[in-house]
Amino acid sequence: MKHRFFAPDAIEIGASVALTADESHHARVLRVRDGEEVEIFDASGRNYVGRFDGSCVIVLRETGNREPATAIHLAMSIIQLDKFEFVLQKATELGVQSFIPLITDHMEPHIERVRGKQDRWEKIVLEAVKQSGRSKIPPIEQPMKFDQAIVRSGAKIVFDADAPQSTTDNRQPTTVFIGPEGGFSERELLLARDAGAAFERLGPRRLRAETAALVAVTIVAARSGDI
């Protein structure tokens, strides 16, 4: 795969796109050579092939993107921050379209620890987009209570270790709900049932939250033929 760079503004074929300071630094770290073909994508999610020229990219042609055919949104309880950031990175690589950090009844980290993390999280997601060949940057919503997220419209699957064994053959845009280490509370599970969510489990073994998130995303993506 070619080296990849992000341009915040719209790109036109034939244009010379100046790289941001961060992307120019990234090019120096990678030792990209003048004349080398690279990929560059913009905030609209369009992907292009260009020729590297100093701190600019000369745009040659548009190329296809590697985005999933079916949107998967990950609504995950905030867990220990290093593990939550690991999920952001890996779920982006798997094709998740957006992230909804959840405030849940059994959440361990205090919500104050999350404040000020948005910029860091967005950088983690951007780097994962570039590494994986994607061209759309998944937005990270502000943390919200489970009660608010579960009543949103659209298909919802709650993965819970104590749910009856079942399979949801769902190939439409879906929000996947993952709880904290202690699982969702009975109150939250009742809210999910009332909201019409489907319930699934991830086999007979109890997984850590970060493992469950990535397994659940992979399963739902595989049903749509994206993996």
Tell me about this structure.
By secondary structure, this protein is α/β, with parallel strands linked by helices. Helix content is 30%, strand content 24%. It is built from six helices and eleven strands. The chain has helices spanning 21-30, 81-94, 118-132, 146-149, 186-194, 209-223, and strands spanning 4-7, 16-18, 37-42, 47-53, 56-63, 72-77, 98-103, 144-145, 155-159, 174-178, 198-200. A six-stranded parallel β-sheet has the order 8-7-6-10-9-11, with helices on both faces. It has a five-stranded mixed β-sheet with strand order 1-3-4-5-2, with helices on one face. Strand 3 and strand 4 form a beta hairpin. The longest helix is centred in the middle third of the chain and has 15 residues, at 118-132. The chain is elongated, with a radius of gyration of 19 Å.
Unreliable runs = none
DSSP strand content: 15-25%
What distance separates the N and C termini? 18 Å
- Give the overall pLDDT as a whole number: 94
Question: Total helix count?
Answer: 6
Shape: elongated
Placed side by side, the strands forming the largest sheet appear as 8-7-6-10-9-11
Please state the CA-atom Rg, rounded to the nearest Å. 19 Å
Strand count: 11
| Helix share bin | 25-40%
Helix-strand string = EEHEEEEHEHEHEEHEH
Q: Profile the largest sheet.
A: 6 strands, parallel
> Class by helix and strand content?
alpha/beta
